[in-house]
Amino acid sequence: MDDRVELGVELLRRIEAESLTLAEAVDRIETITTDPHLTREIVDRAAMAGLLDRDEGIVRPDRGAFVRFESEVVAKEGEFTCRRCGAGLSTGHFIRLEAGEIGPFGSSCIRVVTGRARD
Question: Which of 22, 42, 43, 116 could form a disulfide with 8 if both were Cys (CB 3.0 to 4.6 A apart)?
Answer without folding.
Answer: 42
